[in-house]
Please model this.
Amino acid sequence: MSETVVIIGAGQAGCDMTAALRQQGFDGRIVMIGEEPVLPYRRPPLSKAYLSDEMTEEQLYIKPASTYEKQNVEVITGVRVERIDRAAKNVTLANGEVIDYTKLAFCTGGHARRLPLPGAEKPNVHYVRTIADIEKLKAQFLPGKRLLIIGGGYIGLEAAAVGIKKELRVTLVEAMPRLLARVTGPELSEYYYCVHSAKGVDIKLGAGVDALEGGELVERVVLADGTRLEADVIIVGIGLIPNTELAEAAALEVDNGILVDQQCRSSDPDIFAAGDCANHDHGFLLRRMRLESVPNASEGARVIAATICGKEAVHNGAPWFWSDQYDLKLQMVGINQGYEEVVIRGSMEENSFSAFYLCGGVIISADTVNRPKDFMVAKKLVAGRVKADAATLSDESVELKSLIA
Amino acid sequence: MGQVTYVSFDGEQTVVDVPNGDNLMQAAIDNGISGILGDCGGGCACATCHCIVDDAWAAKTGEPDEIELDMLDGVVDPKPNSRLSCQITMSDELEGLVIHLPESQF
Ligand SMILES: Cc1cc2nc3c(=O)[nH]c(=O)nc-3n(C[C@H](O)[C@H](O)[C@H](O)COP(=O)(O)OP(=O)(O)OC[C@H]3O[C@@H](n4cnc5c(N)ncnc54)[C@H](O)[C@@H]3O)c2cc1C
Ligand code: FES
Model:
């Protein structure tokens, strides 16, 4: 019987999987089904160059339709997969079509966590996940408007930077006592607080949102301490919920993402998952983790393709990520959870530094700002679980490279 | 539009038409060339689009900027003509360009 790989979700992971399957020599049928009406695209620019009008929609597409045709990949867009029948090994689409699979991959990503308050459905409350979200936002993203951003994570901060560039009046509220609290150390939080404040973002920390007031539009945001902030446009960036309903309905194991092993295989050996929707047994971190990044989606996709083609592959790369705000190029590698010590190399004043996170003397993670060279070395240091002491790491006369074992 | 030849690490050659203005990472993805990943989408943030420009062409493709040089410093087995393919933009001048792909991107 000939093989058919069905991919649910036409995003980063799905798209990369189609290419990787062909490159690994898979010659069966490949069908990728996506709910959004467009070809797979890159999301990172949504809160960066696309929001600031420096990129067109076509430039967001990972590749043109002709490439899928050439690689003999069937792409169905604008249709949701509604059901999976694991016994019959098929999926049912919203348009009634039924497609049989021999291998199935979940690349369903996630959706923006909604603000659980009355008024959050009004037309000037925005999320930043899809092209459609940004199209709606752009119409209101105009000079002089009062932009209020709820959430001081990457997406909120990147949107703030674009808001300043586009001459909006930007306020950002964050419920935690510091910015980027979930992902970075207090030193970086403080640094980004200073950068954004200096650019004119009015940041309020420890500021939970209690209510939204107004008429047809939200006009005021009420904070927990009773402060009322006037706003024309509101962006909510408070995290992502993995799209796992289908997997749950099909009785796959799910716990903050579809549970998969190091080959990205779920509790059903013919079903895989990668990207934002997957919670994998990470071969490098040696624990379960659900990551939200392009490199993670791409690596997972390549691992699934190799596994389906009978090759050995494990998802074990040190996780890494990047974020662009103003002219600051932030690149980070590793997960700093559980670190005991932070060492700064370089100068925050000059906007060129790296923060290394140590645990038991081992470099477990690094955040680099405008230091691509440090970043490339840090990737190797983190991947190699290299030990280093604070004095050496902070001493710029010692070449970072010399620490690579 | 001009032709660019991608030579894989094993020596396999693929010739593709690249529209002017496109970068050579994107052109590799568009044509399903393995050996170039482009994880950051051309942001000069990942260095998974490393290539080595053929000696005959090194002068025409120009010099990498500082960020690109710093990223190249950390790729596997850098060569004097190493470039990040997302930072090379196709133009009439580059018609016939030949680039070589490394054994591994990480
Ligand atoms: C604004 C923004 C900025 C970002 N910036 C960065 C960055 O700088 N660096 C970085 O590394 N990462 C960044 N990310 C994260 C990165 O984009 C994601 O981690 C990545 O897109 C995940 O890929 P994925 O394939 O898992 O999911 P997605 O790309 O979200 O694709 C999933 C697709 O599946 C579809 N789908 C879901 N359910 C179904 C169904 N039942 N039937 C059919 N289709 C379905 C969805 O509609 C969606 O199109 C950013 C994300 C956003 C939103
Ligand atoms: S695609 Fe990431 S550096 Fe070229």
User: Anything to note?
Assistant: The radius of gyration of chain A is 22 Å.
